[in-house]
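Quiz preparation item.
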């Protein structure tokens, strides 16, 4: 029906991947209090506030978010979809060899921060993280910079 196009499967295909058997999904490292989180990605649909047909647009989004359509996405593109129940669906499991790798992440996943300028916010966060990793700025200074720059975006 949908075929197996899972990106997870491609990671373990020796003809397409150099990381076969050497990858995983993990939550972000825990805080000092032991809390660990994962953040949802950018695969999303939305309605423009300027749509000339807002009611019809919302109906389309309801169809896209429906369980049957989300299952189709899980079969065609991999298991990172809206309905957690799909991760236990027999057909989805058959089409996604490494689906069990997502469970530790799903238990602690949170939505990314809401922002009308998320692309810019993401860049600011990435720059801050890069600075800490490369040692050009302390974690405390990076957080101050990220917070200040993020406030200026909205």
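Solution:
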């Amino acid at each position: 029906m949908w075929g197996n196009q899972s990106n997870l499967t491609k990671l373990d295909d020796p003809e397409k991947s150099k990381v076969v058997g050497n990858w995983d999904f993990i939550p972000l490292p825990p805080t000092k209090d032991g809390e660990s989180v994962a953040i949802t990605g950018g695969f999303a649909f939305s309605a423009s506030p300027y749509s000339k047909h807002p009611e019809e647009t919302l109906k389309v989004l309801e169809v896209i978010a429906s369980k049957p359509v989300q299952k189709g996405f899980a079969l065609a593109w991999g298991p990172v979809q809206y309905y957690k129940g799909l991760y236990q669906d027999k057909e989805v499991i058959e089409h996604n060899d490494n689906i069990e790798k997502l469970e530790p992440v799903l238990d602690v996943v949170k939505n990314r921060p809401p922002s009308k300028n998320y692309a810019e916010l993401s860049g600011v966060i990435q720059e801050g993280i890069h600075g800490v990793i490369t040692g050009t700025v302390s974690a405390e200074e990076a957080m101050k910079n990220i917070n200040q720059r993020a406030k200026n975006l909205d």
